[in-house]
Amino acid sequence: MPLAYELRPEKLDDFVGQSQIVGTSSWLRQAINKDELSSVILFGPPGSGKTTLAHIIANATKSRFVKINAVLGTVKLLKEELLKAEEAVKMGQKTIIFVDEIHRFNKAQQDVLLPYVEGGSIVLIGATTENPSFTVISPLISRSKVLVLNRLEYEDLEKILNRGLKKFSKVKITEEAKRIIIGESNGDARVLLNTLEDLFSQSNNITKKSIENSNVLKTLKYDKNGEEHYNIISALHKSMRDSDPDGAIYWMLRMLDAGEDPLYIARRLIRFASEDIGMTDPHALMVAQATYASCHYIGVPECDVILAQAVVHLSCAPKSNSLYTAVLSARSDIKSYGNLDVPSHLRNAPSKLMKEMGYGKGYKYAHNFENAKVEQTHLPERLKNKKYYLPTERGLEKKIFDKLQK
């Protein structure tokens, strides 16, 4: 039996961490103690205690308890259990259905649960590592309490580690090794206990050196298709926007070391160069483009310094969102006003008929004017006085715009 399973607590008083949802006055504790639980969605990172809480509820309740893993569960199996739940209700017994990894159920599968949750035939406990806002259908969320579990703190993991050590009383372990194991668990109790078990299977004397020589590797929480992916790229983007090169380097390396495609990061840097810097430093876009090409040529791991150079340049560059706001404003007018007519003097006139219709009449050829500065309307009549591009006073942007105006 895996150590993580063997040490799983059977009652709430032995549960470690998550005081915000299992504290003495919490709704969940009161509901469990009174056996009056209603449907809940447990949302949190791996190893934070979601499945453990479900098992504690199973031990504490007088209800039938059914566990379904969404990876293996089918609609047929689900309907069978729901029909049994309806029969149990007629006999005066409630049914709790625990759906582990509920985010892996598609919409049709989740829809099957809805009428039974709504009608009170079952109490649903859904566990998910993915944000339920995106992975659980809205009607189920509205009929459930969403409880957020956090990554376990150092002190919580230390308690769990000490419980595990009691199982291996003959094995010696240094305090430094304990700190390394806790740090490498990344807030995940299951990873911590699995790591501990793996180390003890290799040696009876656990030290920093024995850990380094083992095949136990540190794993970073990062899902290329999940919420953490978007959280970290958001942190990188906002660190650069806030002109913080240290934060930018950290989040960039978090992505890269977790296996993210460096070209994805480079593409985001190209977007950032125009959206948040623009004409205050026109070279930023060239730096970002060169970064993409360099990452393509050199690949990982050598591209790490190239990406670091880029994020530092973009972080330290003067910022302006003038291009971004210009795009938003112009696109808003296009959506609001539809296909406004092109002013006659700007229209193409390749035929005699078009010329007779006034196409191109009055057009002023820019190269006939000093600095190619022409006073003529370039927007549809309804928008003729509209200003989309509003340059800032920072960097090269104002100088370039002032030169253009002259």
Output the structural class: alpha/beta
The first-to-last residue Cα distance is 79 Å
Oligomeric form of this entry?
single chain
Give the topology string: H per helix, E per strand.
HHHEHEHEHEHHEHEHHEHHHHHHHHH
From the 3D coordinates, which CATH architecture of the largest domain would you assign? Answer: 3-Layer(aba) Sandwich
- Which stretches of 5+ consecutive residues score pLDDT under 50? none
Tally of discrete structural domains: 4
Strand content: 5-15%
Shape: flat
Strand order of the largest sheet: 2-3-4-1-5
CATH class of the largest domain: Alpha Beta
Radius of gyration: 30 Å
CATH topology tier name of the largest domain? Rossmann fold
Percent helix range: 40-55%
Largest sheet: 5 strands, parallel
Overall number of strands: 7
Q: Let me know the CATH homologous superfamily of the largest domain.
A: P-loop containing nucleotide triphosphate hydrolases
Mean pLDDT: 84
What is the tally of helical segments? 20
